[in-house]
Amino acid sequence: MHKEKYLIQFQKNEITEYYVYKKLASFSKNKTNKNVLIKIADDELKHYYYFKKYTNKELRPNIFKVWWYTFLSFLFGLTFALNAMEKGEESAQKKYKEFVGKVPEINKIINDENVHEKELLSLIDEEKINYISSMVLGLNDALVELTGTLAGLTFAFQNSRMVALSGIITGIAASLSMSASEYLSQKADKNSQNPLKAAIYTGIAYVLTVIFLVIPYLVFSKPIISLSFLIINAIVVILLFSYFVSVVQEKTFKQYFLEMFLISFGVMIVSFIIGIIAKRLFNIEI
Questions:
Q1: Which Gene3D superfamilies does the UniProt entry name for this protein (predicted)?
Q2: In terms of Cα–Cα distance, which of 225, 201, 200, 231 is closest to 213?
Q3: Which of 4, 88, 154, 184 has its CA 20 to 30 A from that of 248?
Q4: Residue 103: DSSP 8-state
Q5: What domain range is 186 assigned to?
Q6: Residue at a domain's end among 82, 109, 126
């Protein structure tokens, strides 16, 4: 790619990040967070105008990225959205280094980006990020247990409404049990911040996953169709979950997704078999 095209790409990235930080700052209710985001946004805008001196072009931001990271902020929290954006821009930052000595002040821009990632973003104060492990616990457990349970009940009952009712009852009971276990676990941990909040985050993550997995059985009357959409929903949850963990814990997305996929669908297959055996063994027709 020609040097000018790279500079245009850099300029596009900077104006896009400016609008992302600016929009996130406008939604932030925490004064410290807002000030941090405004400071970073101002730096990104300076970088944009710096590259503009070389390209002589007025560029617009990537609107999709602006709204995408804003959406991630609402869904998973501010810290997650910022980490995801920084991770997505790693290749661009590496490309900056190739222009050291070729473009004046590029070292300052590289330094600013490092400061944003290592210092300013570390100042972000957010409650959600302190309870990531609790949310992960609830979501992960609900995913593994409910996919298997609903799949087994599908073959045992052959009735979508019955499966949905059983799934909801099982899910709510399991979420309460999981929340109680998380509360006791955090209570025993001297480093735990707030056992009650940890339990609440675990329970909410569990219940939301249960609802998402049960919905097909409330919408479709034919069990096999419901099961098909259960599989799709489970894959969506695994994708989101794997993406979340890969960003927060800096793990490889593909490896974690494959691991979760094999575990969840392994449990589902075993539950299929158990459901068929149970139906034939007890000669149940519903």
A1: Immunoglobulin FC, subunit C
A2: 231
A3: 184
A4: S
A5: 131-282
A6: 126
Task: Tell me how far apart the alpha carbons of residues 264 and 143 are, in angstroms, rounded to a whole number.
Answer: 7
Structure tokens, 87 = 């991770």
At residue 29, does pLDDT exceed 50?
Answer: yes
pLDDT band at 215 (very low <50, low <70, confident <90, very high): very high
Token pair of 236, please? Answer: 């969506």
Please check whether residues 250 and 173 belong to one and the same domain: yes
Tell me which H or E stretch contains 84.
Answer: helix 78-88
Domain boundary among 92, 126, 160: 126
Q: Is the separation of the CB atoms in 202 and 134 below 8 Å?
A: yes
Residue 178 shares a structural domain with residue 80: no
Average pLDDT, rounded, for the chain: 79
Q: Do 143 and 260 lie in a common domain? A: yes
198 and 244: one domain? yes
Span 142-155, pLDDT tens digits: 887 788 788 778 87
- The answer, yes or no, to whether residue 25 has pLDDT greater than 50, is yes
Residues 120 and 174 in one domain: no
Looking at residue 260, its pLDDT comes to: 78
- For residues 266 and 262, what is the distance between their CA atoms, to the nearest angstrom? 6
